[in-house]
Specification:
Number of strands of chain A: 4
Shape of chain B: globular
CATH class of the largest domain in chain B: Alpha Beta
Strand content of chain B: 25-35%
Helix content of chain B: 10-25%
Oligomer: heterodimer
Largest sheet of chain A: 2 strands, antiparallel
Strand order of the largest sheet of chain A: 1-4
Radius of gyration of chain B: 22 Å
Strand content of chain A: 15-25%
Bound molecules: flavin-adenine dinucleotide, iron/sulfur cluster
């Protein structure tokens, strides 16, 4: 799974933080930080967070692709 | 060949290149699609690098961009475009191949402006923050517990790095030639607020000075920095945050209006040639582009903004496969965010396109407020510190060219807001390059020379 938040859209209310606290967190009052390649075990929570975001700022790509250090990436090195 | 078939080449495999490739397939392009990228990684996201990655909250390889849809394309990664032949319609590649195209998208972005002295830049401990490799290297150094970090340049990247260092409990000195951090992007009034925030968090902020030399320990490791005010600082790490250089060298001699300020294009993302004539089949998007914006008197804007790369890539891709009457203009308002010292800074419009500024909402003392910028009596930008939810409202005022100062009684601040001079300095006097540049009306750069700031 991979995800991304459009932080221009995000209003920092933190619904996603509440629903998937291991993936999203607030830094200060409203600056959102997140893990773009969370553990697969988080998928259900991430889906719920994406659905609950009032401005639809969370993009999720489900599937096996996760972090950058894929085989292909290492092979090219 | 119709709009939907033929050969499309995208040069630059980062945010703009990826979103353009997706949009091309979304819009029914069935021809051959090749994406050329100098970095050997698949497209990844840069903003997290100077935030969650260097804070140590997320591993550096957790930054790959999610795809919005599967993209059927030939990805040539680890390969650089070295030249463009518009007559033969070929892109020349670093692996020796020539890549023919019917339509081309230039999305080569920018790179970090290097420390100007090559020998000093090569010292172990002198680093930039643009790529994944930069972030990996810097992360290692920060985790090793340096005695002191020097950040050169107090633009957004430099300020975010200072924030990261303080949060890690590291001593950090920020050196900036301008009067305050972020002054090029936000003007003097908010820059003073940014300076207060840095100092309150324990940053040793030194403005109005330049770094004159970086010195080694005799074994190739950075040991010391000298400042123009005579100070000598013992430092283990120097983060070079002097702004960006547009990746346009590969277009030299191609006949396109490409130079140090970017590649000029029209509102439909068609590149201009050197004579100011728009090309039919070469398009531009993202940080490398200079494009006219009606809200800013149709002057050409050069933005280093994530949101612009996405929006412009979508418009460029749409126009690459659409006949004239269906083409769209790229008109979205410039927008960006930055998070530093736990404050969420968001901006809409172009704050440096202003002669006046007024805090219209919230409280500067509490560091929760919205400031509105005006130029010749109309609203041109708004910046929020921890007040993101209000920005859309101000966006509508900017688009409507509403009168400045705004005439309404605003939340928590009855009566008329105090209007102050915008105090936007000439970018030439700053260490950091501003991430927004208003670059005039001429697509041509024949009279522009590139000045390398000494630091
Ligand atoms: C540390 C950091 C933090 C940031 N934080 C924010 C933020 O908080 N908010 C915000 O709005 N924006 C932020 N940005 C800016 C944002 O990341 C950029 O606007 C965005 O990456 C632009 O995308 P792009 O695709 O146009 O260009 P780039 O991301 O620069 O990509 C261009 C790609 O083209 C490749 N390339 C260059 N020349 C060639 C060639 N000749 N041949 C082949 N490939 C080539 C490059 O290697 C690169 O991969 C940040 C940037 C950085 C570096
Ligand atoms: S739910 Fe959406 S708007 Fe709210 S903090 Fe998360 S991403 Fe931002």
């Amino acid at each position: 799974m991979r995800l991304m938040v459009d932080l221009n859209r995000c209003q920092g209310y933190g619904q996603c933080v509440f629903l998937a606290p291991e993936v999203f967190s607030l830094h200060g009052e409203e600056a959102l930080l997140y893990d773009a390649a969370p553990d697969e075990g988080q998928i259900e929570r991430v889906r719920r967070a994406a659905a609950a975001c009032p401005v639809q700022a969370i993009l999720v790509e489900e599937g096996p692709r996760a972090g950058l250090d894929t085989e292909a990436d290492r092979d090219r090195a | 060949m119709t709009g939907r078939d033929g050969r499309i080449v995208v040069v630059g495999a980062s945010l703009a290149g990826l979103r353009a490739a997706e949009t091309l397939r979304d819009e029914g392009f069935t021809g051959s699609l090749t994406v050329v990228g100098e970095e050997r990684h698949e497209p990844y996201d840069r903003p997290p690098l100077s935030k969650q990655v260097l804070l140590g909250r997320v591993p550096p390889d957790h930054v790959a961009l999610p795809a919005r849809r599967p993209v059927d394309a030939d990805w040539r990664l680890g390969v650089r475009a070295t030249g463009l032949d518009l007559e033969k319609r070929l892109v020349r590649l670093s692996d020796g191949a020539d890549l023919p195209f019917d339509r081309l998208l230039v999305a080569t972005g920018v790179r970090a402006r290097p420390w100007p002295d090559e020998a000093q830049a090569a010292l172990d401990g002198v680093v930039g923050v643009r790529t994944l490799e930069d972030a990996r290297g810097l992360l290692e150094r920060l985790e090793a517990g340096p005695r002191r970090v020097l950040v050169i340049g107090a633009g957004f990247t430099g300020s975010e790095m200072a924030s990261v260092c303080r949060e890690r409990g590291l001593d950090v000195v920020v050196a900036e030639r301008g009067g305050a951090p972020l002054i090029g992007a936000l003007g003097g009034v908010l820059a003073e607020v940014a300076a207060d925030i840095q100092r309150a968090h324990g940053v040793d902020l030194r403005c109005g000075v330049t770094v004159t030399a970086l010195e080694g320990d005799g074994r190739g490791r950075l040991a010391r920095a000298r400042l123009s005010d005579g100070a000598a600082l013992e430092v283990d790490v120097a983060v070079v945050a002097l702004g960006a250089v547009r990746n346009t060298e590969w277009l030299a001699g191609s006949g396109l209006a490409a130079g140090p300020r970017g590649v000029a294009c029209d509102a439909g993302c068609h590149a201009f040639d050197l004579n100011g004539v728009v090309t039919d089949d070469v398009f531009v998007a993202g940080d490398v582009a200079r494009f006219p914006h009606p809200v800013y008197e149709y002057q050409l804007l050069a933005l280093e903004h994530w949101g612009n790369a996405v929006a412009q890539a979508e418009v460029a891709a749409h126009n690459m496969v659409s006949p004239g009457v269906r083409k769209r203009p790229h008109l979205s308002l410039p927008a960006f965010w930055s998070s530093q010292f736990g404050v969420n800074i968001k901006s809409l419009g172009v704050p440096s396109f202003a002669d006046e500024v007024a805090v219209v909402q919230g409280s500067v003392e509490e560091r929760r407020f919205v400031a509105v910028y005006g130029y010749q009596g109309r609203v041109t930008a708004a910046v929020a510190f921890d007040q993101a939810m209000w920005l859309d409202f101000y966006g509508r005022l900017i688009e409507a060219a509403a009168p400045f100062p705004p005439g309404f009684d605003t939340v928590g601040r009855p009566g008329k807001p105090e209007v102050l001079p915008a105090d936007v300095p000439d970018p030439a006097v700053l260490s950091h390059g501003p991430t927004v540049a208003v670059t005039g009306h001429l697509p041509d750069e024949r009279r522009v020379t590139l000045l390398r700031p000494p630091g």
